[in-house]
Amino acid sequence: MKKYLLLFLFIGILTQSCKKNDDNPIIEEEVVEEEEIIEEDVDIQVQDFLWQTLNAYYFWQADVPVLSDDRFATQVEYETFLKANPDPENFLLDELIFSEDRFTFYSDDYKELANFVAGVSKSNGLEFGLARIGDSDDVFGFVEYIVKNSDASTKDIKRGDFFIGVNGTRLNVNNYIDLLFGDSDTYTLNMADVENNTISENGKEVTLTKQEGLVEDPILVNTILNIGDRRIGYLMYNFFTLDSGDALNQVFADFKNQNITDLVLDLRYNPGGRGSTAVILASLIHGSNTDQLFFKTTYNAKIEAQFEPGELENNFVSTTGTANGGMNAMLNSLNLNQLYVLATGASASASELILVGLEPYLDVVHIGTTTVGKNQGSILFVDDPENGNFYDPERTNQINPDNQWGLQPIVSQVENSAGFSDYADGLIPRH
């Protein structure tokens, strides 16, 4: 069970006591004993972890009454509340999540979330989109790109190809989830051609197998196009991973050495990722102006109270840093005054931050469609109270073995140097 669409108040769990009724002690004693047995069967470790984490860090903590610091007068009242919600997922969705929250996600296996954030997955390497065929319930797929060094990269399938069925069964709105995202690691695509606005099966079949631990290189394409007197650098970047800063710097070193005149940044399939990597990319584009603000982060009132003025401001940087083994190399900045960005309805979070954060400093030309509208950040939390529940890959042996849940709630909101943060409905393209 999972859902994927950035002060620790500790409350101990106490055993609830019950009063006896002196008027009918025998009957009351039997009832109390039954109630106590029922309560003992309710394991509330996950519920406790979810409430504690959101009470401490959730961006909308003040907007969810049940997460209020003074919501429970006693430990017993708190425990009773948790036990009244025996299903952790329903508890999270029905009681704790703010109505306007579109992006908090979770899993009952934190490793899945950690791998997802790091760009590691069980995948065949085929990235595709789906669409209805006209007004019918039939569905077809179209290949967006192929992940490097994946099973799909060894097969006769490429970007722009179409498929209309799986294992000989035509895709429709009722079966595509089972056929494409089911338990089977291997499936065969029935490929198709599009002619005269009609899609039809062409007899070609492509069999793909998912592989465990596929690590996607977020830099899918980087090249230089010579068009007239212009030398255009093109970078297709698909995920802001923590460890890709040095690789991006090497790409920009080539762009700089080749004296490009323009840059096209393709973020069409980029859902976001690390804000720190977005800072590096923005600095490679604009320049290492460490006295200029790229974006400011806001948190809930409890978190913000712990910071000094200016500590939540994120300026441009001059090096790749040392995070996750970074080389702390000087950036090969291009110091551009114009940037072309390809962004669509699949571009979110850190991708949108690039457009918004650079807007006050250079001419950002957004080409494509309206973006997702995620002006927020999230962090992965696990049941590790001694570390404030923050996920640390070096502390996995400290995570509660009886609770393997991972929670990635919205903890912050961003705004650019001009104070702009109102793009929850997405960023509208210029072209």
TrEMBL record:
Lineage start: Bacteria, Pseudomonadati, Bacteroidota, Flavobacteriia, Flavobacteriales
All residue ranges annotated as the Peptidase S41 N-terminal domain in the record: 46-105
Span of domain Tail specific protease: 231-377
Organism: Maribacter litopenaei
Source organism, top-level taxon: Bacteria
InterPro entries the UniProt entry points to: ClpP/crotonase-like_dom_sf, PDZ_sf, Pept_S41_N, Tail-specific_protease
Any matching Pfam family: Pept_S41_N
Protein name as it appears in the record: S41 family peptidase
